[in-house]
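ok trying again, last paste got cut off:
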Amino acid sequence: MFELKTVQTASKHELYQELLSQARGLLHDARDLIANAANISALLYHALPDINWAGFYFLKGGELVVGPFQGKPACVRIAMGKGVCGTAAAKRESIVVPDVNRFPGHIFCDAASRSEIVIPLVKNGELLGVLDIDSPKLARFDEEDRMGLEILATAFLESVQ
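nice, full thing came through this time. structure:
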């Protein structure tokens, strides 16, 4: 049985190291894409401070389709190149957005979201989707968050078939 540990650290680096340890525990011997995405989104939602949405969009039929997430109901489909998620997916680059109101073409799924980070999920050269996290706080995410979440995304990708 997995027990979510409350993470109280002095630095973001320590926070992401602890989250990586917990994620590896959740992902150990688990290979299912949907089950692993569900557990990782729950872990992030409950462990990261000041977020209001954490989840996955997977590439299906040339567009991103909502997958497992925690938070309010989400946009179901996002076109490639549209919004933060579609842009990160098309560019295959992580995007940190300090103020979503200043991101051209931002898609408002939850009006409470003020900042966002999106990590593309690429395995063996193939885009599988994105990890998307929103916050009600402006400038919630920074380069430390990007690096920590990219490492967590890699652990997630290594776990799935």
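cool. The longest strand covers residues 126-135. Residues 28 and 68 are 19 Å apart (CA to CA).
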